[in-house]
Amino acid sequence: MEKTLITYSTVDGQTKRISERLAKLATQSRVDVLPISNQINLDSYKTIIIGASIRYGKYRNEVFNFIENNIHTLNVKENAFFSVNVVARKPEKSAPETNPYLIKFLGKIKWKPKNLGVFAGKIEYPKYKFIDKYAIKFIMWLTKGPTDTSKTYEFTDWNKVGDFARDLKL
Questions:
Q1: What CATH number does residue 24 fall under?
Q2: Which of 108, 112, 140, 156 stands 20 to 30 A from 74 (CA)?
């Protein structure tokens, strides 16, 4: 059976949850799910999928470093990239060709993923430290999102995650 790697960068864990769901949906390959910060030998994988979340409008540096350090391997393997961000909760910003974070990211890297996905993330106000809670609340207020800091808001469309897994033939 073919081996697939799903490697992820997450701040609060939603990208990890999405990665694990993709792995559970796999029927045609064995899937390893590992943090992007791990030392990973990519040689044994036929397919490499990278998932990354946005915090304050940016992907973490570890995502850029992983791609830069492994670009030659990524280019010769089957591959995909998916972005997890709360702006994707809006239908007009929930596709690879309309999501501003993914578009900006693709313009900054030399790698051209063969498959792209965008998933809305999660806001977990009760879990955040004071500064993050109110910075995110302000961003949500500006973008007409939820601002009740006593609640958690999950925007991930799990059916869309399933469609992505089927499209990748995992």
A1: 3.40.50.360
A2: 156
